[in-house]
Design brief:
About 60% of the residues lie in helices and about 10% in strands. It is mainly alpha-helical and about 130 residues long. The radius of gyration is 16 Å and the shape is globular.
C-alpha cells in the first residue's frame, strides 16, 4: 500500500496543472486497485477540504461530492473510514469537516468530550468550551 498526499489528490480532482494532473491520474489509475489500494489518512482529508474551499473557492456541495467519491472508491483505503463518513454527513449539514472528524475519532477512542476554544465547535455534541 502507498500513501497519497493531499497535493496528489488535488491535482487528480482539479486537473489544473497538466503535468502533475497527468502523473496523479496515471498513479491512481495504474497503481491503486482494490487489491492494493492507495492509503488516504484523515489529515489528508482535512487538508483536501481546506484546499478545495480556500484555495479553489469550491462550494460546500462540490467539496462534499468529491469527498463522497473518494470515500466510495475501492482503490483507496481511508483511515477512520466510518468516522470520515459520519463527518461527511455532518459537513453536508453545515458543520466543519475537520471538527467533525476530530470529534468522531476522539469519541471512538473513548474521549467523553473534546475541549476547544472554537465557539461553533463547542456547541456540537462531544465538544466542550474550555
Amino acid at each position: 500500500m502507498t500513501g497519497i498526499d493531499t497535493n496528489v489528490l488535488v491535482r487528480y480532482l482539479v486537473q489544473d496543472d497538466p503535468e502533475q494532473a497527468r502523473k496523479a491520474t496515471r498513479f491512481i489509475t495504474n497503481e491503486c486497485s482494490s487489491e492494493d489500494p492507495g492509503f488516504i489518512n484523515r489529515i489528508v482529508l482535512c487538508e483536501l477540504v481546506w484546499v478545495l474551499e480556500t484555495a479553489y473557492g469550491y462550494a460546500r456541495d462540490k467539496v462534499a461530492l468529491a469527498l463522497e467519491r473518494i470515500l466510495r472508491t475501492a482503490q483507496f483505503t481511508i483511515e477512520d473510514h466510518q468516522e470520515a463518513w459520519s463527518s461527511l454527513r455532518e459537513y453536508q449539514d453545515g458543520a466543519d469537516f475537520a471538527d467533525s472528524l476530530i470529534g468522531a475519532v476522539n469519541c471512538r477512542r473513548g474521549c467523553e468530550r473534546t475541549v476547544t476554544f472554537d465557539r461553533k465547535a463547542s456547541r456540537r455534541g462531544g465538544f466542550a468550551a474550555l
